[in-house]
Description:
two-stranded antiparallel sheet, mainly alpha, 5 helices, Fumarate Reductase Cytochrome B subunit, about 0% strand
Amino acid sequence: MLQRKRLFNYLLLAAAAVTSLSGVIIQVGYHIGNPSTLIKTTRTMWGLLYRHWQLIHLTAAFLFLVLSVYHLYKHRKWYKGVIKKRTFSRHKELLLFTLIFALSAVSGLIPWTVSLFVPTSTTRFAIIEIHDKIALLLIVFIYLHIAKRVKHLYLHKPTR
Protein backbone atom coordinates (compact mmCIF):
# COMPACT_ATOMS: atom_id res chain seq x y z
CA MET A 1 0.00 0.00 0.00
CA LEU A 2 2.79 2.43 0.91
CA GLN A 3 4.59 1.67 -2.36
CA ARG A 4 1.47 2.60 -4.34
CA LYS A 5 1.03 5.79 -2.31
CA ARG A 6 4.66 6.72 -2.87
CA LEU A 7 4.39 6.02 -6.62
CA PHE A 8 1.22 8.12 -6.77
CA ASN A 9 2.98 11.00 -4.96
CA TYR A 10 5.93 10.81 -7.35
CA LEU A 11 3.57 10.87 -10.36
CA LEU A 12 1.75 13.86 -8.87
CA LEU A 13 5.09 15.59 -8.26
CA ALA A 14 6.30 14.87 -11.82
CA ALA A 15 3.04 16.11 -13.34
CA ALA A 16 3.24 19.29 -11.22
CA ALA A 17 6.87 19.85 -12.23
CA VAL A 18 6.27 19.39 -15.97
CA THR A 19 3.12 21.53 -15.85
CA SER A 20 4.95 24.26 -13.93
CA LEU A 21 8.03 24.25 -16.16
CA SER A 22 6.13 24.18 -19.44
CA GLY A 23 3.73 26.86 -18.19
CA VAL A 24 6.57 29.17 -17.18
CA ILE A 25 8.32 28.59 -20.52
CA ILE A 26 5.11 29.42 -22.42
CA GLN A 27 4.47 32.48 -20.27
CA VAL A 28 8.02 33.88 -20.32
CA GLY A 29 9.02 32.73 -23.80
CA TYR A 30 5.85 33.55 -25.69
CA HIS A 31 3.26 35.55 -23.71
CA ILE A 32 5.22 38.26 -21.90
CA GLY A 33 5.78 41.32 -24.05
CA ASN A 34 3.64 40.05 -26.91
CA PRO A 35 0.06 41.04 -27.58
CA SER A 36 -2.05 37.89 -27.80
CA THR A 37 -2.40 38.22 -31.57
CA LEU A 38 1.36 38.53 -32.10
CA ILE A 39 2.70 35.45 -30.31
CA LYS A 40 5.73 34.28 -32.27
CA THR A 41 4.71 30.66 -32.75
CA THR A 42 7.79 29.91 -34.89
CA ARG A 43 10.19 30.87 -32.09
CA THR A 44 11.83 27.91 -30.37
CA MET A 45 12.51 27.51 -26.68
CA TRP A 46 14.91 24.68 -25.80
CA GLY A 47 14.48 23.37 -29.34
CA LEU A 48 10.68 23.17 -29.26
CA LEU A 49 8.07 25.32 -30.97
CA TYR A 50 5.15 27.02 -29.24
CA ARG A 51 2.70 24.29 -30.30
CA HIS A 52 4.97 21.61 -28.79
CA TRP A 53 5.14 23.47 -25.48
CA GLN A 54 1.36 23.85 -25.58
CA LEU A 55 0.93 20.11 -26.13
CA ILE A 56 3.36 19.27 -23.33
CA HIS A 57 1.63 21.75 -21.01
CA LEU A 58 -1.90 20.58 -21.83
CA THR A 59 -0.97 16.90 -21.45
CA ALA A 60 0.89 17.40 -18.17
CA ALA A 61 -1.81 19.75 -16.86
CA PHE A 62 -4.53 17.21 -17.65
CA LEU A 63 -2.58 14.47 -15.85
CA PHE A 64 -1.93 16.86 -12.95
CA LEU A 65 -5.64 17.72 -12.79
CA VAL A 66 -6.72 14.07 -12.76
CA LEU A 67 -4.13 13.09 -10.15
CA SER A 68 -4.98 16.16 -8.02
CA VAL A 69 -8.70 15.41 -8.08
CA TYR A 70 -7.92 11.87 -6.94
CA HIS A 71 -5.59 13.29 -4.26
CA LEU A 72 -8.37 15.59 -3.03
CA TYR A 73 -10.79 12.65 -3.09
CA LYS A 74 -8.40 10.60 -0.94
CA HIS A 75 -8.31 13.50 1.55
CA ARG A 76 -12.05 14.15 1.52
CA LYS A 77 -12.40 13.09 5.16
CA TRP A 78 -9.95 15.80 6.16
CA TYR A 79 -11.96 18.42 4.24
CA LYS A 80 -15.22 17.13 5.77
CA GLY A 81 -13.65 17.35 9.21
CA VAL A 82 -12.53 20.93 8.65
CA ILE A 83 -16.03 21.87 7.49
CA LYS A 84 -17.82 19.93 10.22
CA LYS A 85 -15.59 21.20 13.04
CA ARG A 86 -15.34 24.70 11.50
CA THR A 87 -11.56 24.77 11.88
CA PHE A 88 -11.01 27.01 8.84
CA SER A 89 -8.73 29.44 10.65
CA ARG A 90 -6.29 26.68 11.60
CA HIS A 91 -6.04 25.51 8.00
CA LYS A 92 -6.07 28.80 6.06
CA GLU A 93 -2.99 28.02 3.99
CA LEU A 94 -4.19 24.64 2.76
CA LEU A 95 -7.71 25.90 2.07
CA LEU A 96 -6.26 28.86 0.14
CA PHE A 97 -4.07 26.43 -1.80
CA THR A 98 -7.16 24.38 -2.70
CA LEU A 99 -8.99 27.52 -3.83
CA ILE A 100 -6.05 28.71 -5.94
CA PHE A 101 -5.79 25.25 -7.50
CA ALA A 102 -9.50 25.32 -8.41
CA LEU A 103 -9.22 28.84 -9.88
CA SER A 104 -6.15 27.86 -11.88
CA ALA A 105 -7.83 24.73 -13.21
CA VAL A 106 -11.01 26.56 -14.22
CA SER A 107 -9.12 29.51 -15.73
CA GLY A 108 -7.01 27.00 -17.69
CA LEU A 109 -9.93 24.90 -18.89
CA ILE A 110 -12.12 27.79 -20.06
CA PRO A 111 -9.71 29.12 -22.74
CA TRP A 112 -9.09 25.60 -24.00
CA THR A 113 -12.84 25.01 -24.31
CA VAL A 114 -13.38 28.41 -25.97
CA SER A 115 -10.59 27.66 -28.47
CA LEU A 116 -12.56 24.67 -29.74
CA PHE A 117 -15.23 27.07 -30.99
CA VAL A 118 -13.52 30.48 -31.45
CA PRO A 119 -9.73 30.02 -31.76
CA THR A 120 -8.83 33.74 -31.78
CA SER A 121 -11.27 35.10 -29.22
CA THR A 122 -10.07 38.17 -27.29
CA THR A 123 -11.91 36.85 -24.24
CA ARG A 124 -9.92 33.62 -24.50
CA PHE A 125 -6.62 35.52 -24.43
CA ALA A 126 -7.77 37.65 -21.49
CA ILE A 127 -8.65 34.53 -19.50
CA ILE A 128 -5.26 33.01 -20.39
CA GLU A 129 -3.59 36.11 -18.92
CA ILE A 130 -5.61 35.66 -15.73
CA HIS A 131 -4.69 31.96 -15.70
CA ASP A 132 -0.99 32.85 -16.10
CA LYS A 133 -1.06 35.01 -12.98
CA ILE A 134 -3.07 32.56 -10.87
CA ALA A 135 -0.83 29.69 -12.02
CA LEU A 136 2.32 31.52 -10.85
CA LEU A 137 0.75 31.81 -7.42
CA LEU A 138 -0.26 28.14 -7.59
CA ILE A 139 3.33 27.12 -8.35
CA VAL A 140 4.48 28.81 -5.15
CA PHE A 141 1.78 27.02 -3.13
CA ILE A 142 2.54 23.65 -4.76
CA TYR A 143 6.20 23.79 -3.83
CA LEU A 144 5.47 25.06 -0.32
CA HIS A 145 3.02 22.17 0.08
CA ILE A 146 5.63 19.70 -1.16
CA ALA A 147 8.39 21.18 1.02
CA LYS A 148 6.28 20.71 4.14
CA ARG A 149 5.61 17.08 3.26
CA VAL A 150 8.87 15.95 1.63
CA LYS A 151 9.95 14.17 4.82
CA HIS A 152 7.10 11.69 4.26
CA LEU A 153 8.63 10.65 0.94
CA TYR A 154 11.93 9.67 2.54
CA LEU A 155 11.38 8.88 6.20
CA HIS A 156 8.82 6.13 5.82
CA LYS A 157 10.39 2.83 4.96
CA PRO A 158 8.42 0.75 2.46
CA THR A 159 6.66 -2.32 3.83
CA ARG A 160 6.52 -5.56 1.94
